[in-house]
Amino acid sequence: QAERGDYRHYIIPLLHTLMYALIKAPCISDELCSRVYDFCKKLLTLPKPFCTIGLDYAARLKMERTAPGMLYQRMVISEQSLRSDPYPYQEKIFIFADPELLSEAICKALLTDTEAARVSQSPRACMCFVITHTVQAALGEGCDLSALRMRLQGMPSSEVEHWFQEVVMAVECTGSQVAADRGQHVERLQSIYSAILSSSPPGDAPLEGLQGTPLPNPNISFHLWTEDDQLWKELVLFIRPLSQSCEPDRLSQDLDNFEIQDIISDCECCEQTRFSVLSTDSGIERDLPPSAEEPFAPCSADTEQSRLHRKGGIKKKPSPLESVAFLQTGCNGPGAKPAAKVQRRVGIPTEPTAPLLRLHTARIVLLGDDRILGRLAQAYHSLRKRETRRVFLTPRLNLQFYYVPVTGQPGMLAAASPSATSPEELCEVAAYLGRADPWYESNINTLCHMIPKLATMPSSPSKHLVTDLFITDVIAYYVRMGAQPVCFQVYAVKVFFSSSAQEPAEDVFLTELCAQVQDSISAREVNPTKKKTTLDGPGIDLTVTYRKVVVSDRAKEVSLSLRSTGLSMKAIPANTAEVIAFLSSCSLEVSPCLEPSYCLQKSRTMKFSLQEAEDVGLVKYMPKSLLLPINTFAGVIQ
């Protein structure tokens, strides 16, 4: 009906709901799967985001028709980080909340909810879920699910893992084939099903028909954002867990003093950004090989002592993590070189290395108002700068951002932006996302006031039974189905002081910049004969020059002068305006923040062509502005 009528905005919410139900369904008829697949192909004729979502779901349904149960299996394996060679992908949800923005009751309720969601997340239980769901999806009503569950429950964990690997191998092999036969896939799972039940006595009870298999809650960790580099630390530990280290206690201490310039000193995958030449001699003349014209002769003790002196060199700063090779072991993934170094010789070609695979996906969920997004923009900019100098996370990690607006207590509004008069003004980004994506407005923006109410509700006596995990379920649905990003421009602000002794101060922000200034003597008070150009009152004289873009796409500079006690500047999403504010004691410049990798490549290009003002070479194809993508269900619906 949405397709036939003029209700195009209902298509994406209905399609998300249908796909989520198909993933969890015990068995999908080929006729239903074919109808949904044909509908997704029709979406390819529509503009974005309809064609993008239609293409994604059409590819998934094609795999599901060939290998039933593949979508459920892959989701559980990646979300629970189950060990599987055919499908080695891992995902984790990081919930970050600022304790200065949210009350203690809200933080405690969210922590309790996420911890309760881990009750049914044991690896053994998740492997049993995959086996039962995949077998039933392939065999349909011919699967005695009760007998299969009872048999798996009585097995030792090693045997359960063996059959789990067999099922995963069968599904992934079928899904990887170009012209796979569904009949052969069903026969293979039938043999696995018969082998599992071979040692159990046959039962006389009739088959109970199709039964649903629970979809485990994803792996969620809750973090109070108390450190500036906490996001980067958690991402590094996600790829390189402390459990894989021989010295976890030392690592936890060293991580506090971790500096990106000193890491990866032994990681060959990052040598592409290194310009230094490795010297293999010790720097001691005694260790140098004898020259051809100099015959070798034994030396006296005095002569030997006089030759033992150090040659001039550069003193290397020792890294606190160098002793444990923190990131060297983390580089030993698919496509990485072995840990042992092989010295390169002239004339001997080196073996090409396979490209690194992004086997890890970190889904960052931000809880709070627009202020926590400003903090995210600063952390993301810092992360991109680190990756520009020494790449490590980028080739291995798929980073996704999500935003759940939550308002704090009424008393916390006083510590907010001076321009904000209501909690709604602190959630302008969420309001913008709700206008761009109606499904985000219905599912996520409703949590803005609901989470604080749930946190203040009295706990029931049966709360330990985990009967209702509303917040976790909504966040799980959001991160699973919200894959369309809405990009926000990150802005850079630079403050120049009148005193040449003070270095310029730099920072970044996302949607709003607030600055408070001290009172100063106005120009009228200093020179009474001077014509009055600003208002009298407390504060400082302020001159703002900005570039205004009109409908004809012509830009013109506009200036205005005033006297104020502070400055509040709001940025419209995807705006590229430049603002320069001249204060009595300093000047403030605001412009779109550039991508750090673009700046680095640009500087390298300028070394060889100083006269080039335009982007040339590789710089032309690199993203220039730093954009912060926040995932929604549909992106921006045209």
**Tally of alpha and pi helices:** 20
Task: Please report which band the strand proportion falls in: under 5%, 5-15%, 15-25%, 25-35%, 35-45% or over 45%.
Answer: 15-25%
State the distance separating the first and last CA atoms: 20 Å
User: What class, by secondary structure content?
Assistant: alpha+beta
Strand order in the largest sheet: 7-6-13-12-9-10
Helix share bin: 25-40%
Q: What's the alpha carbon Rg, rounded to whole Å?
A: 31 Å
Low-confidence stretches at least 5 residues in length (pLDDT < 50)?
245-277, 291-297, 303-309, 318-325, 337-343, 463-467
Shape assignment:
elongated
Q: Report the sheet with the most strands, covering strand number, pairing sense and barrel closure.
A: 6 strands, antiparallel
Number of strands: 14
Average pLDDT taken over every residue: 76
Organism: Bambusicola thoracicus
Protein name: PI3R6 kinase
GO molecular function: 1-phosphatidylinositol-3-kinase regulator activity
InterPro entries: PIK3R5/6
